Amino acid sequence: MRHCRHIITFLLLMLTLTISAQTTNIRTQHKVEKSETVFGIAKKYGVTIEELIAVNPEMKAQGYELKKGDTLNIPYPKAKDTPASQAPAKPSTPQQTTPTAPTTAQPTTTTVAGRKNVKVGVMLPLHDNDGDGRRMVEYYRGLLLGVERVKKDGITVEMQAWNVPIDADITNTLKEKGAADCDIIFGPLYTKMVKPLADFCAKNDIMMVIPFSISGNDVENYSNIFQVYQSPEEFDQQTIKNFIQWFNNYHVVIIDCEDENSGKGGFTSKLRSQLDNYAIKYSLTSLSSNEKNFAKAFSLSQQNVVILNTEHSPALNTTLAKLNVLTQKNADLSVSLFGYKEWLMYTKVYLDYFHKYDAYIPTYFYYNDVSADTKWVERNYQRWFEKEMNADALPRFALTGFDHACFFIGGFSQFGSAFNGGKGQMTYKPVQTPLRFKEAGKGHKNVNFMFVHYKPDRSIESVNY
Question: β-strands 304-308, 335-338: how paired?
């Protein structure tokens, strides 16, 4: 059996400040408002998260969550050196063991007083043999960029990466030097490897992050598992729940697109059942309906929200054409469009229509190509690895890796074994892929969900749940 190991070790150094928890360092108090985060409050007062936690020791408690009405002590900010450039330096003299998985020689570990050190392992297919490998290499490169970013927060990271292809025996990987010393392991990609890795992580007190699609409910049996992936069934449940909450005063119009190749028929059937349960009125129509019958499905006295039972673009084209005719002939008609995350692939083509019809798209990610943060990561990805990210993938794998590194390494560094990824510990502003975890049995499942709203004034907002 082929087993290839790639080891990447980065020693990232930045001087950190000694935090004083003395009450004499408190300059004021802050009453927490709805939707505020630890990150936002620290930024508002010009202090670091560590400084804020130091004068609010209750924030270190297991399961702590920031709540509306809480009163926080606000310290005086410490004197800081002029910050370094945001852009990470390209790794010096990388040693390429494969065309796609860059490595460097392991530097000598240096211990500096006051620094936090996190040991990270990556156990994913890191090769160029198939799509799985190429996608995971891009994700891994995003992790590396995220590791470089967290050093700005004074975190030292030691990273090791193992190539674990689909035919590998992961139990052999777990015998490798350094595996048992990790604080966090990202992986695996394949379901059959979850339990042996989970047992190993439980035995060695390692946080285990499962970043992508798996089956089974091992997360419920292991307290150290953080499962990022949300199943389609779980995502549909969240979509319907939040649709009912947001659109309960709208008139719902469900359009049958007669698309036998779509899997969205089951979703709209579940939605109709819940609309009936909550006594929310809706109309049914079809793309094959004539103009008069199509118009009858809409309300002139209520805001309408239109849902298709397919995610495919030909049906969307036909729907938009019929809505154009309908709204031109009925100036008082008000229409919103409710879509699917697959439509985010069509944004450049349909952006004007999304804004025109006040579109809402349920999703767990949002790739904003005009965001300064997105451009920063993409620019440095190209500079480090001398190639662009895969533009055909949404979400972008490298941006996902970047967000995961910042969220989990930063969270572990701040909260240690008390880190639960919940609302009160969301100190990182994501570039593309927000995360929020809730308990699932013994473990933790990502429940992040949002509507991306294309407003008629051509602004875009994220409605987070």
Answer: parallel
Report d(CA 242, CA 158) in Å as an integer: 41
The token pair at 170 is: 């992961």
Of 90-94, 229-233, 285-289, the least confident: 90-94
Tell me what pLDDT residue 62 has.
61
DSSP line for 428-441: ---SS----EEEET
Question: For residue 9, what are the CA distances in angstroms to 104, 122, 133, 178, 190?
Answer: 7, 11, 20, 11, 24
Q: How far apart are the first and last CA of the chain?
A: 45
Rounded to whole angstroms, how far apart are CA atoms 158 and 107? 10
What are the tokens at 202?
A: 């439980």
362: tokens are 């349920």
Q: What are phi and psi of 381, to 5 degrees?
A: -60, -45
Q: Is the peptide bond before 188 cis (omega within 30 degrees of 0)?
A: yes
Distance, CA of 352 to CA of 455 (rounded, Å): 10
Q: Would you call 69 helix, strand, or coil by DSSP? A: coil
- In this predicted structure, what is the pLDDT of residue 425? 85
Token pair recorded at residue 426:
């969301």
Task: Say what the pLDDT of residue 99 is.
Answer: 29
Report how far residue 167's alpha carbon sits from residue 289's, in angstroms, rounded to the nearest whole number: 52
Q: How far apart, in whole angstroms, are the C-alpha atoms of residue 115 and residue 190?
A: 35
- Domains of the chain, with CATH numbers? 23-75 (3.10.350.10), 98-230+370-448 (3.40.50.2300), 233-363 (3.40.50.2060)
Distance CA 127, CA 438 (A): 33
